Amino acid sequence: MLETKTVPKIRRKDEILRILYQQGHVEVRPLSEILNVSEATTRRDLRRMSDEGLLELVYGGATLPRNGNYSIRSRQTRNTEAKRVIGQLAAGLVRNGDSLFIDSGTTCACMVPNLLTRQDLSIITNSNLVAAEIGERTNFNVLQLGGKFRFERMDSVGPFAQMIVEQLSGYRAFIGADGLALDIGMTSTDVDTAYLYRSVVLHASETTLLVDHTKFNAPALYKILGLDTVNRVVTDQPPPSEWIDLLERNGIDLILPQPAAEAAKPE
Predict the structure, then answer these.
(1) By the 8 A CB rule, do 233 and 254 touch?
(2) Mean pLDDT of all residues in 69-84
(3) Can you tell me the distance from the alpha carbon of 84 to that of 80, in angstroms, rounded to the nearest whole number?
(4) Which residue, 42, 146, 167, 222, has most beta carbons within 10 Å?
């Protein structure tokens, strides 16, 4: 029998959320076996996550919140280490003097701490949090998109935001996605975000997609654009082989953490 390792506490929340978003529900007994912890520990984890609004407790396990929870607070708790790594890698692609679009997702927000030592950046964003952090800590030129304000996400979307984007060009876009599919491309959980990011990509000089490993083969409802509009993908782990083949065929660079990148190379 293969020995299974206990999933550390810091990673259990991410693993529970990954399974929950794939299946829509989790049960205590099989979940405790996957995590290699006691059922009592699993129940405590689920109760804590319920208190944070990440899931709803039901008899024997938990389900996704009835209305879904896509608030900035909720999204900041998911795959935190992966997002930190991706943000650092993406920031390494930025040059002094660049003009950037940084979206309002929590993955792209992880770029910001790594950009503060750059010089003469111009930042376009629909995120209140990104604009506030950069504006407070640097003298970069910051253009914040106006439009329909979403308090739970701390961002702006809608026709007014799109109108501004359509007057811009020459920037490098850094965007995330809620899910990816081989035949569809980038997707979002809401139509407003999908339409805005579509405009962002179409008016950008180049686009870098920031997604953690859970987004591959897990499409959301609304299509943004196909992967052929992307120049590179930054992620935390090598994606499935069919994705590596697709990226290579379309000339899309795959940016991985160094150990993962070395491990992915053929012998």
Answers:
(1) yes
(2) 60
(3) 6
(4) 42
